Amino acid sequence: MALGLSDANLIAPLAFLLVATTVVLHGFTLAPFARMLGLTGAEVPGVIIIGGAPWTTALAETLKAAEVPVLMTDPNFGHLRAARAAGLDTFSGDILSEAAEQRLELVSYDTLVAATDNDAYNTLVATDLAPEFGRDNVFQIMRQKSDSARHQLPRTLGGRRFGPDLPHSDLTALIRKGWTFRTTGLTEEYTAEQWRTKNPDSHLIAEITPAGTLRLIRKIE
Q: pTM for the full model?
């Protein structure tokens, strides 16, 4: 600018725009390109479940039985004891840590469910990993209601709503009452409407496509 070169004042904003654009493009295209080139760890994209609890373990076991790759993680090693006993893939540690970045092949998974008993941590994980997985593929269980406005987290942060509108404590209570996760094959002869008629009190969590891909179903407003 001191030399009088035209448009010299645009160099700084253009540099920031270039960096921002390349980072965004990298984040949204890395996983699809890795799968296209066969560089992922699994042919069928899997799901990462954050939080080791009786109900998340039961969900992971059901998905594994349906041949959907599942990884369970929790910062607390003890919370994953049941998952390890069930033969599930686990990672003990913070999913946002450098250790997780070095040890986990996140491109092998295209769906994430933040389901710990810590609403703030769930929101942090879902918000931080949304650019990598895509916001449509990041889910979070319902937050525990708080009477204090100071402890309410902004609704703009976090992931999409997961399954029934129930917080962690209520989902755990359902498992203790004997609720289970089940898979049902649907055909032209046995449709989703017929299933709903026979199971009016059930909660529909997800569908698994004929190709084996998991698609979580979020509640429609």
A: 0.76
Phi/psi region, residue 207 (left: phi>0; alpha: psi -120 to 50; beta: rest), is beta
Environment class of 3 (CB within 10 Å of its CB; exposed 0-12, middle 13-18, buried 19+): exposed
Q: If pLDDT is split at 50, 70 and 90, which confidence band does 36 have?
A: low
Half-sphere exposure of residue 184, counting CA atoms within 13 Å on the CB side? 18
Q: Which residue has the tokens 């090693």?
A: 77
- Cα distance between residue 151 and residue 148, in whole Å: 6
